[in-house]
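Hi support team,

I'm filing this because I wasn't sure whether my run with magnesium ion finished correctly. The job status page said complete, but I'd like someone to confirm that the output block is well-formed before I use it downstream. Pasting the exact inputs I used:
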Amino acid sequence: MTSTYSLAVVAGDGIGPEVTDQALKVLDVVAEGAGLTFDRTAYDLGARRWHATGETLPDTVLEEIRGHDAILLGAVGDPSVPSGVLERGLLLRLRFELDHYVNLRPSKLFPGVPTPLADPGEIDFVVVREGTEGPYVGNGGAIRVGTPHEVATEVSLNTAFGVERVVRDAFARAQARPRRKLTLVHKNNVLVHAGHLWSRTVEAVGAEFPDVTVDYLHVDAATIFLATDPARFDVIVTDNLFGDILTDLAAAITGGIGLAASGNVNPDRTSPSMFEPVHGSAPDIAGQSKADPTAAILSAGLLLEHLGHAAEAQRITAAVEADIAARDGQPRSTQEVGEAIAERVAAEV
Ligand code: NAI
Ligand code: MG
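And here is everything the job wrote out:
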């Protein structure tokens, strides 16, 4: 079977283009073996464009991107651009405009990966973070800025519709995994309004998934268990802010930011989903071929899975796993890591 997909590529800033090149290299090898074609359009968005034109994400470009089957993103953000301009104007705008309400972040401790935990156990869970609501919607403001009487608000927005759709997605994912366990993480003892909406929704939707075991943890307790007993987690569903924080901790215990992949998913497929490494543009190592492209490569795997090619996605994971197992601590360039993983994928065919 031959399938052709249109892929929008936003390599972005710093190490973004370096790691994206390697992800595309691996994607091409997998695609070739599976009879898939990815027609790529590269979009020049990020710091360079902002300096040249003042644009972050022009409406016309957004509409063009919307016409693709999927998006592969590197990273955006640069010290030469005021903080937040690209992150809000480009990255968050894409997530909101394309209705990426599921921010998917799998965490797996691959054999041979150093972890700061003395006794990690078997870590294999996925965080389903709500992506379009919570405190990240920009529902706030400030007055008397810079005076002792400054007032600043950042209101967390939670809708029954928004909570239900992400909870439903998390239950479906839990049901498809061997352990069939879902943990809601919130702070419903203090944030009672949003927290009770989340709890009631999990209870109601859970009735439709009787074979999924449901657990609840306050977010502070969740950080304890992520450090002391991460093996207890299977699927975690949580709000935008808690999910942002928990997934950095999850990345830290499973080998660090160079391995953490993510998907900004629109499960209804009304617009393209976007796959990207969790890390940023790493200006401190940009242009030195030092970046680990593994997170970007695993993100390409998530992209394949989203498009319905689970076996091909698994080939990327297997190649990464084998590459990691063979690592001996000798430094390799970004290209060398990408090449090694691409060769392993090719050899699997
Ligand atoms: P960062 O993730 O770019 O870097 C944090 C540290 O991790 C740095 O020491 C960096 O060298 C290292 N690192 C990151 N990725 C790596 C990789 N693949 N291999 C090896 N080392 C790696 O986060 P930071 O420094 O807070 O942010 C830098 C810029 O990136 C900022 O402008 C920030 O806003 C932006 N950013 C963008 C994101 C995105 O595009 N999704 C996510 C996070 C930050
Ligand atoms: Mg983050």
